[in-house]
Design goal:
By secondary structure, the chain is α/β, with parallel strands linked by helices. The protein has 2 domains: 171 residues, Class I glutamine amidotransferase (GATase) domain (Rossmann fold, 3-Layer(aba) Sandwich); 92 residues, Orthogonal Bundle (Arc Repressor Mutant, subunit A). Helix content is 46%, strand content 13%.
Length: 305
């Protein structure tokens, strides 16, 4: 079944906070990844911060644990005393998360999650202009400054504006695989990466901040087959270059050898599986390690990247 992605629209929302992740999930759906998008609001028409009116539906679709609610940010050089959502909407956010679903925010959308009680006891981030204000407003939560996004117990928060794209691509990579996210990124022409030190940031995307086509082609292969045994000679033959040239060009573009890049993808996927209840042994098998010893070594001394 396709994953439902519901965008909760509020007055004066920023267009890019909405359009960035919406474009990513829509593109993923066009590529066959299975996403259905919905736009819900407490009123039938929302006027954005940029003056563009948007029609929204009042009724929520039926959601399950695999589905996602995204709250885009709104114009907020200084936050109002209360976020622009009512009690029923706050309960909807709480109920979806309690049922096992994911909730996400872009920029000041974190204020809505905080008002729903979803930030308490969790780490989160927001736009740098709002960190002090939100930190004071939600003292039971832990603000993480100067990062693109943070994932904590199915609550995903991002810094704002274009970082909503980073958040969406990360979720696509986790749910549909690194290859799918890479294809979406290429369609959207968003290879460039910005600084961020959160492990939730997709390794695939973090090493796509270059313009070398040969390296991108090799990454496309590894992204789609990272759980397989990939020989350097096969990668080189598939691209039509020597092993020496492949290693030199790939390392210069990404900062990693092809093997280390593959290991980083495996480690990231394994950490996600373990975080969702899988044993180390089971995660190791899924990502392609013959036994769990290599995974344990990588987890104890994560490879650079």
């Amino acid at each position: 079944m396709p994953t439902k992605v519901v965008f909760l629209l509020v007055p004066k929302l920023h267009l890019l906070d909405l359009a960035g992740p919406a474009q990513a999930f829509s593109t993923a759906n066009d590529l066959g990844c299975g996403y259905d998008l919905y736009y819900v609001a407490e009123v039938e028409e929302i006027v954005t911060a940029q003056g563009v009116p948007i029609k929204a539906q009042r009724e929520w679709p039926d959601l399950g644990p695999a589905d996602l609610i995204v709250v885009p940010g709104w114009r907020s050089p200084k936050l109002s005393p209360h976020p622009p959502i009512g009690a029923a909407t706050k309960q909807r956010l709480r109920g979806h998360h309690a049922a096992g679903g994911q909730v996400a925010s872009v920029c000041s959308g974190a204020d809505a999650l905080g008002a729903a009680g979803l930030l308490d006891g969790r780490r989160y981030t927001t736009h740098h202009d709002l960190t002090d204000e939100l930190a004071a407003r939600y003292p039971k939560a832990s603000i993480v400054r100067d990062v693109l996004y943070v994932v904590d117990d199915r609550v995903i928060t991002s810094a704002g504006i274009a970082s909503g794209i980073d958040l969406a691509l990360h979720l696509i990579a986790v749910e549909r695989g690194a290859e799918a996210a890479a294809r979406v990124a290429r369609e959207m022409v968003v290879y460039a990466r910005r600084n961020g030190d959160e492990p939730q940031e997709s390794a695939m995307l973090r090493h796509r901040g270059h313009l070398n086509d040969l390296a991108h082609r090799v990454q496309d292969v590894i992204d789609g087959r990272y759980s397989e045994q990939l020989r350097l000679s096969d990668l080189a033959d598939g691209i039509g270059v020597s092993e020496r040239t492949l290693t030199r060009v790939f390392s210069r573009a990404t900062g990693l050898t092809p093997l280390r890049y593959q290991q980083l993808l495996r480690l990231e996927r394994a950490e996600h599986l373990i975080g969702h209840g899988a044993t180390v042994e089971a995660a190791a098998r899924v990502v392609g390690f013959e036994d769990a010893r290599m995974l344990r070594r990588l987890r104890s001394r994560p490879i650079a990247g």
